[in-house]
From TrEMBL:
It is a multi-pass membrane protein. The keyword Nucleotidyltransferase does not apply. It comes from the Eukaryota. The chain crosses the membrane at residues 42-60, 72-89, 149-168, 180-201, 280-302, 323-345, 365-381, 402-422, 428-445, 452-472. This is SLC26A/SulP transporter domain-containing protein. One of its GO terms (cellular component) is membrane. One of its GO terms (biological process) is transmembrane transport. It comes from Blomia tropicalis.
Length: 511
C-alpha cells in the first residue's frame, strides 16, 4: 500500500512537472498553446485565409518595398521571414505581420536624410547589353545600398522592443491615447499618397531635392515641397500614357472592391452560402499589366517605367548589420519602434476583445522585437502589423497564425520561382495598389468628428498631431504630437492636484 502511494505521488509530481514545462514553453512560445487548443474545423478557415492573404502580401510586399526606398524584392522578404518568426512567438491570432505603409514611409524618411547617388552599369544578358541603375546612399562618406542602412534600423528597432520586454513595459501603450495614433496614421497616409503621385503620373522625382526653383523654406515642409514640385513640373514632366493607365487601373480596383465584390457576396447570401469573399484583384491586375507591358513594350514605346530588375530569389539575404551605423539610425529607430508597437498592439487588442482570448502585451514586445532582430540578418527592413491585411484576415475567418504561416510559405515560393517574371511590371501598378490600401486608413479621418463630440482634449491632440505630421513629416510630426500629449497630461495632472487640495473630501480620503 505504501509503495502504491509512493508511485502515485511520483506520477503526480511528474504530471505537475510536465504541466509546468508546457506552461513555461507556452509562455515564451505561444505557438504551443494554440496548437494544443486547435480545433479541426479551424484548419479549412486558416487554409482558405492563407491563400487569400497571399494575394495581398505579394503586391503589397512589392509596392511597400518601393515605398520604403529599396528594391521590391526586399519588401517580399519582409512579407516572408518576419511572418514565420511571429507565428512562433506572437499571441495575436488574426494580426498580419509584414510590410506596412506607415513603417515604409518612415524608412523612406530615414533614407531621405542622405545623398542618393545613381550608378549605371552594363549587364550582359542573353548576348545583349542591358543598362542597370543602382542607387546608393552616402552615409558619412561611405557608399552603401539603402537596404544596408535599413537593416541596421531593423536591428535597433528589435533591440529597443526587446529591452522594453526585459523591463516589462508593455503597459506603456495604454498611456498613448487613441486620438494620437489615429491622427498620426491619417497624417502619414497623406505622405504615402503624395509619394505615389510621381509614379502615377510618370514623373521623375530624383531631381526634386537638387532643383533650384524649390524655395529653401519649403524644404522644411516635405509635403508642401513635394506638391510645389509636382504642380510646377506637371506640364513638362508628366507622362500621359502612364497617367491614363494608372487612372484606369485605380478605377478598376475601386469598382471591383466596392461594387463587384459586395454584389457577389450578396448573391451568395441569397443562396444561403455563408462566405466572406475577397477577390485577388490586386494580384490579377499586376499579372495582366506585366503581360501587356511585355507584349506591347510599354517601356520602349511609351516610356512607362518598370520596377528595377530583381537579380535573384534569395541571393540577397545573409547580410551582417553594420554596427557602426547605429548612431545614424538611432533616433529614427526609437520613434519607429514606438510606431510599430503601438499600431500593431492597438489592432491586436481589437481582435482579442472581439474573439475573447488573452493578449500578452509583454510577449508582443518580445515577438515583434525578435522578429525585427532576426530579420536584420536576412536583408529585411523593419516589420509591423498591417491594418489592411489584418482586417481582411479577420473578416474572412482566419482563426490562428497558421493562416499567416500558410501565406508566408506561398510568398516564399513566389520569391523562389516567380520573381523572374516581374521584369516588365510597370511601377505605376504598384502605386495603384498602395493607393487602394490607403482607402481604409484614410477612413480614420472621420474619427475627428467622434472626438469633437466626446472630448475636447482628444480633439486638440488629434488636430495638433495631424497638422504636425502633415507639415513637418512623419518623424518630427510624431515628436511634436508626443510633446503636445505630454504637456496636456501634465496640465491635467496639475489641475487634478489643485482641485484635490481645494476639495476637503479628497483631502480627508486618506486616513
Amino acid at each position: 500500500m505504501g509503495i502504491n502511494e509512493h508511485e502515485s505521488a511520483n506520477e503526480r509530481t511528474t504530471t505537475n512537472l510536465k504541466s509546468s514545462m508546457i506552461q513555461c514553453l507556452g509562455r515564451w512560445f505561444p505557438v504551443f498553446q494554440w496548437i494544443q487548443q486547435y480545433r479541426r474545423h479551424w484548419f479549412w478557415c486558416d487554409l482558405s485565409t492563407g491563400f487569400t492573404i497571399v494575394a495581398l502580401h505579394i503586391p503589397q510586399g512589392l509596392a511597400y518595398g518601393r515605398l520604403a526606398g529599396v528594391e521590391p524584392i526586399f519588401g517580399l522578404y519582409v512579407s516572408f521571414f518576419p511572418v514565420l518568426i511571429y507565428t512562433i512567438f506572437g499571441t495575436s491570432r488574426q494580426i498580419s505581420i509584414g510590410t506596412f505603409a506607415v513603417v515604409s514611409i518612415s524608412c523612406r524618411e530615414l533614407l531621405s536624410h542622405y545623398e542618393t547617388i545613381t550608378i549605371n552599369y552594363d549587364v550582359v544578358r542573353n548576348q545583349t547589353n542591358d543598362v542597370n541603375k543602382v542607387e546608393l546612399i552616402n552615409v558619412n562618406g561611405e557608399l552603401m545600398r539603402p537596404i544596408d542602412l535599413l537593416i541596421v534600423s531593423s536591428l535597433v528597432v528589435g533591440t529597443i522592443l526587446l529591452l522594453l520586454r526585459l523591463f516589462q513595459l508593455g503597459w506603456l501603450v495604454s498611456i498613448l491615447p487613441d486620438s494620437l495614433l489615429s491622427s498620426f496614421v491619417v497624417g502619414t497616409s497623406l505622405h504615402v499618397f503624395t509619394s505615389q503621385v510621381y509614379a502615377l503620373i510618370g514623373m521623375d522625382r530624383s531631381n526634386q531635392s537638387s532643383n533650384n526653383d524649390n524655395i529653401d523654406l519649403l524644404r522644411h515642409f516635405p509635403l508642401i515641397s513635394s506638391w510645389n514640385y509636382i504642380i510646377k513640373h506637371l506640364s513638362t514632366s508628366m507622362n500621359r500614357y502612364t497617367t491614363i493607365l494608372s487612372t484606369c487601373t485605380i478605377v478598376i480596383l475601386f469598382t471591383v472592391r466596392n461594387y463587384v465584390e459586395p454584389q457577389i457576396v450578396q448573391q451568395l447570401e441569397k443562396t444561403k452560402t455563408k462566405t466572406q469573399l475577397i477577390l485577388p484583384i490586386d494580384m490579377t491586375v499586376i499579372v495582366i499589366l506585366t503581360i501587356l507591358s511585355s507584349v506591347f513594350d510599354f517601356n520602349g514605346q511609351f516610356e512607362v517605367e518598370n520596377i528595377p530588375k530583381i537579380t535573384g530569389s534569395f541571393t540577397n539575404i545573409g547580410t551582417i548589420p553594420r554596427l557602426h551605423l547605429i548612431p545614424a539610425v538611432a533616433l529614427n529607430s526609437i520613434l519607429l519602434a514606438l510606431i510599430i508597437y503601438v499600431s500593431t498592439y492597438s489592432l491586436e487588442r481589437i481582435f482579442a476583445d472581439k474573439h475573447d482570448y488573452t493578449l500578452d502585451s509583454n510577449q508582443e514586445l518580445f515577438a515583434l522585437g525578435i522578429s525585427n532582430v532576426f530579420c536584420s540578418f536576412v536583408s529585411c527592413y523593419p516589420c509591423s502589423g498591417s491594418l489592411s491585411r489584418s482586417v481582411v484576415q479577420e473578416r474572412i475567418g482566419g482563426q490562428t497564425q497558421l493562416a499567416s504561416f500558410i501565406s508566408a510559405i506561398m510568398v516564399g515560393l513566389f520569391i523562389a520561382y516567380g520573381t523572374g517574371h516581374l521584369e516588365t511590371t510597370p511601377k505605376f501598378v504598384l502605386s495603384c495598389t498602395i493607393i487602394m490600401a490607403l482607402m481604409g486608413t484614410m477612413s480614420k479621418f472621420s474619427d475627428i468628428y467622434h472626438y469633437w463630440k466626446c472630448s475636447t482634449i482628444d480633439t486638440i491632440i488629434w488636430i495638433g498631431t495631424f497638422l504636425s505630421v502633415t507639415l513637418f513629416g512623419v518623424d518630427h510630426g510624431l515628436l511634436v504630437g508626443l510633446c503636445l500629449m505630454s504637456i496636456i497630461k501634465i496640465i491635467q495632472f496639475i489641475i487634478s492636484i489643485w482641485n484635490g487640495r481645494k476639495d476637503p473630501k479628497i483631502q480627508s480620503s486618506n486616513p
